[in-house]
Amino acid sequence: MGEFIGPVAGVDYPTRLAQLRSWFATDADCADYLEWLRWPDGFLCPHCGATSGSRGADGLRRCAGCRRRVSVTAGTVFQDTRTPLTVWFEACWLMAVPKNGVSALTLSEVLPVGSYQTAWTMLAKLRAAMSSADKDRLSGVVEVDEWFHGGVAKGGSSLTGKNLVMAAVERRGGARGFGRARLGVVTGRSAWELRGFVRAHVEPGSRVITDGLSAYRRALAGYVHEPLNESAPDAAEPHELLPGVHRVFSLAERWLLGTHQGGVKREHLAEYLDEFCFRWNRRNARHRGMVFYRLLQHAVAAPPVTYKHLVRVGAAKPVKPLPPGNRGLPGTLEVVGGHRPWRKTAEPS
Ligand SMILES: [Zn+2]
Which of 46, 196, 211, 212 gives a 20 to 30 Å CA spacing to 77? Predict the structure, then answer.
């Protein structure tokens, strides 16, 4: 067995936006990359499991088993999209690589996506792919705390219209700082609510550090619970007692208020928090392009999401006024001259 070598920068994923554009010059280049990610061992028919299929002039595979035409985007978040893959790839880059991701408004201004609503839907689909990542639970020493999104100080009196967010952040100690983070929305601070979040995100047996909220005592049966006494006369400030969760809370809040202008609706908050964690958990990637690669990997593995599902039937649609002349069919970013460094060997027929 050879040593496992991870994806290589500049070969398996692009390292800069300019490189992204030179590799993924056409939709065919993008589709080939998605095939390489989705079927690393060669074509696999999602209908019948056959492993051979010829490629037609339209780029679709004709399955040798069931004779169906199979698109590499079928069964992924890109299914049935009218937006060219070149545009999708650049959207993925803008969402994954910059520290703050990208807002739908900015995306609609910098890419030929046709409308704000299309931009919002694209990002929401990619966000669903991000939510499907990071399912393994945190472990070791984990800080857990709650926070009211929208700016009520802890212990504040008004809960009306506020969103209670919970965080779990691994504490690595010393120079290693903080590890992975999880965020989630809960409806109250009962032991039952707290326990639901912790059970979902922290490995039983881990050492969990919380503030002195009494509900944590019952919530954390099965964990090594270390409650802090914030009211002790010599106690440090909360952000010093639980530095990991307070760092994540303040960055997440700044991101929601800054990049997203505080416009995230309550029913979408959980997915936005997942997006925040997706980048936080990969903040130490050696190359930021690696985060783009991981996003695409999850996008081809995640099931398709419909627009209706994204906006929650009956919920208000995310509509913003459009600048004139910005409505219409999505454009393309296709240019000539792509090459495919990810294909180290001859392309299978
Ligand atoms: Zn088949």
Answer: 196
